[in-house]
Design brief:
mainly alpha, 19 helices
Amino acid sequence: MLQFILRRIAISAVVLLLGSALMFFATINAGDPLADLRESRNENREQLMAARIRNMNLDMPWYQRYLTWLAGASKCLVLSCDLGSSRDGANINTLLVNSAGASLRLVSLSVVLAIIIGITLGVLSAIRQYSGFDYAITFLAFIFYSLPVFWAAVLLKVYGAVRFNNWIADPALSLTTMAVIALVFAILVASVLGGDLKRQVLTFLVTAGVVFGAVYYFDQIGWWRRPALGLPLIIIGGALALAFFLTMTVGLSQKKVTTAGVITLGLGIIAYFVTDPILENPTWLVVLGLLAVAVLVGAAVGWFFGGFERRTAMAVSIGTAVAFGFLIFMDNLLRAWSGFLKLKPRPISTIGSGVPGFQGTFWEEIFNWGVQLILPTMVLTLVSIAGYSRYTRASMLETINQDYIRTARSKGLSDRVVYTKHALRNALIPITTIVAFDFAALLGGAVITETIFGWKGLGAMFREGLDTIDPGPVMAYYLVAGGAAVLMNMLADLAYAFLDPRIRR
């Protein structure tokens, strides 16, 4: 394995080197970087031209300029990058750090959401092959996959920002809107749960009634401007999380595992009251510390009450504790929404990644940069979900038709065990390749998204470098995007070995 990794690193280094030379040569020959100054009538035009020539090393031949850049970029191997300066004299290292922070925040979140949602939909579509749910997901996947990014982004800016800001000033929902929301949720839940016609109709009616009643209640109490989860909803959410983890592991057959999960829920209720003063205005260090405590408490409960299934009980208890803690976190965050609206009456901006110089509490600061993530993340996520769902469905269908799956079923294993422990793990092997390429591709594809939403990220830096014929920002972008592609492909190779032990040999 070590020899394989070293060989891949060497090949990747050669590819990056050749690609960087081609990118540099293409950029510097795209136009004249002094064109605007040549047409200028400023008295200090000559001084400005001399400064730009010095900043961009235009007095050197192209290969010497490239070798100068390569020498500085090679220092990144010892964490001492020297990427030079832009045509205006700005330090490229500083520009790269600021731009990469914004882009990685956007791309990482969209990739994680796309993976979780896309793979989940793909697995459900494969299990429910040729059902109404399968046809609906297939139809939506093709629509999302064919959406032009710029068109979807503009639509989201209009409806998700401009019209939402107008609505949130005096929020109210009509009965027709409530009915449409209830019908959409009812159709989704009924199609996911499946069953015979009678069961689907019953699920549809119950879900529609519950959702309509909840939305009507929220509208009457003005929840849209003063939201909160409250302890009852947190308990319900924690119970659903426990049910999910039990379903994915041992079901209800192991009483000790179930007992450990229920005890974790009880401790979560106590933690709700204990952490209330702590979370009034915490820091990220405090939040991470509470997360670590939740993991340790869940592990301890699973260990002491799990019996012979300690390992499984620990996993279920930790998952339940983290989910309960996340719901407590979201409850505190939602309660800060009204305060954030006072500071920023139109919460979602159409341009930028946050309000510069914003001053607020810990929770209001999260809203400041968090709400700006919603629209561009939705654009990138919707496009990626389509690919993940289709590839996962195809891979899952191929896997569940294998002989070893039929053997597992003939041995009497439940569908949950067959799908989660046998089929899904093998079906994820080809998906790891898509994840690796998608992450690198999103860094490149974010150029359009960042331009539309006014994010000062890698895309903006790359576009500005191209517009001004400045190879410094362009090569910095290439260094991040190319390095991400190499790194993600390397991680994909390691994931292959983890998912399929035969690959290790």
